[in-house]
Design brief:
This protein is mainly alpha-helical and about 140 residues long. The chain has six helices and two strands; from the N terminus they run H-H-H-E-H-H-E-H.
Length: about 140
Amino acid sequence: MPQSPANSAAKSRVAQRLAQARQRRFVGRRAELELFRAALQEEEPAFNLLFVHGPGGIGKTALLQAFERLASEAGRPTVYLDGHDIQASPHGLTVALSQALGLPDGADPLEPLSRLAGLVFFLDTFETLDPLQDWLRTHFL
């Protein structure tokens, strides 16, 4: 059933309020935020891949969400995927990317991704995608 404009607007407001609450609760990580902010401003960043790691519960997801907010504020296109929601296979990742980009089922997302100048790609909960490590390094990236 299609959503009414009022329901859609209400969901948007709730999502916005939740995002603002997350931002207010996020503290610390100044060095990481400055490193990322500087990379967004550089024409050729010092790195192409930033790997955030550590034990569960220390705020990696919150940091990635802060990075995504900074990238969006800088006018950069972003794609954010969570490994919990992806089948750990090349096909599973390409399906998740297609969905994130709003592409039709079965569409190859790699060409549309390549047209997104300045794209910042976030892949959270990467440890669940361990079987993809070699494929990601040798083919995808």
